[in-house]
Structures are given as C-alpha cells and as structure tokens.
Design brief:
Oligomer: single chain
Strand content: 35-45%
Distance between the termini: 19 Å
Helix content: under 10%
Radius of gyration: 18 Å
Mean pLDDT: 90
Number of helices: 2
Order of helices and strands: EEEEEEEEEHHEEEEEEEEEEE
Shape: globular
C-alpha cells in the first residue's frame, strides 16, 4: 500500500453519483474469440438508462484498440446498438467513443445542483464571484465513454491504451486480474488516471458505481464510491465486489468568449467487469 501513499483513495459516501451519465456497454465484457459484439451507448441516472441511437453527425471517434491493432467500430446511422466489433484474437480490447459538442440551457437551481453533484466547486465559486448564481446557464458539452474487455484467460498488456479522447479515464492495472483480499473485504487496488487533452487532470471528482447493484438514489451508499484525483491525475479504487463497474468524471471550464455559451463541459466514463474468479 505504500506505493499508493500519494494517491487519493475512493471512499464510500452518500452522493448522487450518476446523474445523466453516458456510458458504453458491450454484449459481454468477457466475450469469446471471434464473437460479434453489440456495442451499446446509454444515458441515464444511477447506472440505469436508455440505449441511444448511433448519430453520425455527433460522432468524432468510435474505435477500439485491439491485439490486432486499431479497429473502427462500425454501425448504421440511427440504429441501435450504436456499433459492432468482432473479437478476432485473445487479449485486451479498449473501446472508445468521442462525440462533438451539443448545447443545453439550464435553470439556475438545476445548474447549482449539477455542480454540487459533480464536485465542480471552482465553477460554483466563479458563478458566485460574478454574481450570476440566479441566472440561467448556456452550456456546451461532449462525451467520451470507454469500455475494457478481455478475450481469453490471460492478458499481459493493453488495458492502459489511451485513445486520445478529450477527457479520458485509463486504468493502471488490468481490472480482470485483480485479487480478492478477505482481510480488506475488497479487491486489490485499481488505480485510474484522468487526463484532459492528454494531460493529467488534478483535483477532479471521480465516481464509481456497480452496475449489477446500482444505487437506488443519491442517499444509497451501497456499491458506490468517489474521490478526487491527486497531482498526477490519479485515484485509487478498492472495489468491494465483483461485477460490472462504471467509473465517471466531469470537467468544466468557463468560456472567455460567451456569445454562444457560458461554459464547456467534458464527460468521461469507463466500464469494465471484475470477474468473480479473481477471488
């Protein structure tokens, strides 16, 4: 544990961890070799949401880092699932999606709640300094979900592949090779690095929920964690159970030119599965 002394640990807290998240779910996180996977995109709250159609006009990247090199995730505009990918070789597959910008106008009360949920304290203070807490907000936003899959029983590399997404979550260890500690009642530490335009993002709030037993609402602390990134953009997860996990974070910045929007936000997520066999 000494090697993680400078890493901020995620702790169980009562928080609204998944308001309007956007995430990726494949048919399976442990597919067979030569399996054709459905790759779905979802939006919702607390790990429960609706599948969204593929929209080519909103898509900048939809690709996978595979043992056979980089592959495009293909699909049909306006259809669900959003994409398809065939697993031709054993190993780790890192799937990613990058959207372009969309816009929204939010009432002041809703925006304040959103900032508090996502730990965007700097933006909240800026609004207070400007005397704008009672004004509606124009925001532009983009999304960058990722998923990590493992084909076969062993993989020595590939899980740390960066896909060049605007805001990106990248693990430091293979989530499919974590070991269970009966003493700690959790799996071995899984570090996650949050980067913004390929540089570590400091003091950003990162949340994690278990998709197989998601929180009922913001008051439900079961199977939900959160923490802030350290000076290296890193947080540490001690996952308390196996299953499918969703890690998410939001970064926001104020726009200097405010003719079309006041703020720009970037949403990142990472989904993977910790197999019970890791015990």
């Amino acid at each position: 544990m000494k090697q993680f002394a400078r890493v901020v640990a995620l702790t169980l807290l009562a928080i609204p961890v998944a308001a309007h998240d956007f995430w990726m779910l494949p048919t399976s996180f442990r597919p067979a070799k030569d399996q054709l996977l459905n790759v779905g995109l979802y939006v919702g709250d607390f790990g429960k949401g609706d599948e969204v159609e593929r929209k080519e006009e909103r898509t900048l990247k939809f690709l996978a880092s595979t043992p056979d090199g980089e592959k495009q995730i293909v699909g049909r505009d306006g259809a669900t699932p959003a994409g398809y990918l065939r697993t031709k070789s054993d190993g780790i597959y890192v799937l990613g999606f990058q959207s372009n910008h969309a816009s929204v106008t939010l009432a002041p009360e809703k925006f304040i709640s959103y900032l508090e949920e996502r730990g965007l304290d700097q933006i909240k203070r800026l609004r207070e300094t400007r005397g704008e807490t009672g004004k509606e907000v124009r925001e532009i936003y983009s999304r960058s979900p990722k998923s990590i899959l493992q084909v076969g029983d062993s993989a020595s590399s590939g899980w740390a592949a960066a896909l060049g997404l605007d805001l990106e979550l990248t693990p430091g260890e293979n989530p499919y090779a974590l070991t269970w500690s009966e003493a700690d009642k959790s799996f071995s530490p899984l570090s996650i690095v949050l980067s913004f335009h390929d540089k570590p993002l400091v003091n950003a709030l990162v949340s994690a929920i278990n998709l197989d037993a998601p929180p009922r609402d913001e008051s439900d602390v079961s199977n939900s964690l959160r923490g802030r990134t350290d000076e290296n953009g890193r947080v540490q997860l001690r996952l308390p159970r196996a299953g499918r996990w969703l890690v998410a974070s939001v970064h926001m910045r104020a726009l200097e030119v405010r003719d079309q929007a006041d703020f720009e936000s970037f949403w990142a997520s990472l989904s993977f599965e910790v197999p019970p066999a890791s015990r």
